[in-house]
Amino acid sequence: MLERLNTESLARLPADVEKPAYDRSRLTPGIVHLGLGAFHRAHQAVVTDMAMAASQDLSWGILGVSLRSPATRDALAPQDGLYTLALRDHDADGQPREQLRVVGAVQRVMVAEEDPNAVLERIAYPQTRIVSLTITEKGYCHEPATGHLRWDDPDILHDLENPIRPRSAIGMLVYGLALRRERGLPALTLLSCDNLQANGDTLRSLVLAFALRLDVALTGWIDAHCTFPNSMVDRIVPATRDEDRARITQRLGMEDAWPVVGEPYLNWVIEDKFAAGRPAWEAAGVTFVANAAPYERLKLRMVNGPHSALAYLGALLGIETIREAAILPALRAYLDDMMRHEIAPTLKGIPDSGLEGYRQRFLARVDNPALPQPTRQVAMDGSQKLPQRLLATIRDRLRGGDDIRRLALAVAAWLHYLRGEDENGASHAIQDPLARPLARLVARADVAARAAAPKQAAYRRALVLAGYRPVFGDLGEKPVFVAALAAQLETLREHGVLHALEAVAREPEAIVPSDSLALADAMDAADADAAAQPREAAGVGM
Ligand code: CS2
């Protein structure tokens, strides 16, 4: 039986595996991290590990909090928090290569659901100076289109009534900060590392909105003393597979039950406004800036937008991994055109040469045979992702009266994916916090399309779908968007993904539906109808 990776076995690791270059017994926990998934363990934790090794400031140990599942805690406790990060790519001959590093920054793991009060205590612990978050987009309990807190979210409703046992990250932060203030402890930094535009500002407004329902003085204290830097993190981290665990264990010569895999590329940009200090992350390649907004916009639009497009179009074709989708010539050409002609022009202020390199690098990153990432993993939670990845770009394009057909195809692919089956008839579950209202929406759109005259059916369907305000906001009121969506959705429905990709690759005239006059008629008729119909309520149920 193999020994387990832990403090005691660390010294026996093979020489080609990097190890924590500091005395772990001297670590003190300066960071509480909410959402200890693979993403955090493959970026912030390893960057903190490297920063502590470089600076020997060992006051930045991480106390990791899993919000619900005990799996990470159960795996990491016998390993004293140690785990392996495997960075994978391929050499010039296409052979996979892998660099292993055992990360020592995570000191302890807690499970919030088991003992939420212990998390509040930790936020209110004197040594805690940063609370960071990777809770995914849906963890913010906000309405995707507006960023406002959803007061009808069951966890938020629960947390307003339960100060000692909060379930949402927002509830935990606010009650933890309240305890801190009560105890006369200094304020701290709340650092969001999720893929949201203005993630720090968004977190700040959600925390303040929740706090205001409880206590005006607390709200004032948080506002005056805590900081919420915006940040952009970029590293592709697929879910770890059994074969990754087996291979890494074999290379270590000891068992690691909970390693993570990622690409070598890492880019982390943070606004340098920390209320109570920070690790020397710059020693590990982090860029500190005064304003992260341009970096966030660039990444969300040029990395995550195309990533989602690949996921939905690929999944509809029955393709399992992002890489297999990315090397399909028609999809690759589409991505390339979309990034060059529709996304890059919305990223003003970034020099062309930089953008060109960025685009090429993204295409190379997704073409990584050593790091298969399921299309369905990226396809998850589309309602939470689309606004900042694709819809914001579409809004900018519409303002300039510019072509949006490729972006509209990506959005149409999401809506088509929501039907729950691919082009071969294989079914997939819709994993999305709004799965239920979205299923009702798709059914309503079908009914509307069936009730319409044949020539108006496509527009009618798109009008109902784009009228879903929690995701689309007021975009559904823009006939040019609805018409573009109608055209793409119809092509997907009638002819499939490959035909849609060919159609958008042709000249603009050729992609306007052959029956464009009928479409214009349909737009008029459907607009009149829409004005008479109630819209989907802004508040969204689960
Ligand atoms: C992906 C991201 O799963 C997804 O939605 O688009 O996790 C992506 O891999 C990272 O943001 C890359 O930095």
TrEMBL record:
The keyword Cell cycle does not apply. The keyword Oxidoreductase applies. Its EC number is 1.1.1.-. The gene is por. Gene3D superfamilies: N-(1-d-carboxylethyl)-l-norvaline Dehydrogenase, domain 2, NAD(P)-binding Rossmann-like Domain. One of its GO terms (molecular function) is oxidoreductase activity, acting on the CH-OH group of donors, NAD or NADP as acceptor. Keywords: Oxidoreductase. InterPro entries: 6-PGluconate_DH-like_C_sf, 6PGD_dom2, Mannitol_DH, Mannitol_DH/Oxidoreductase, Mannitol_DH_C, Mannitol_DH_N, NAD(P)-bd_dom_sf. It comes from the Bacteria. It comes from Achromobacter insuavis. This is Polyol:NADP oxidoreductase. Residues 293-492 form the Mannitol dehydrogenase C-terminal domain. Residues 30-282 form the Mannitol dehydrogenase N-terminal domain. It is an enzyme of class 1 (oxidoreductase).
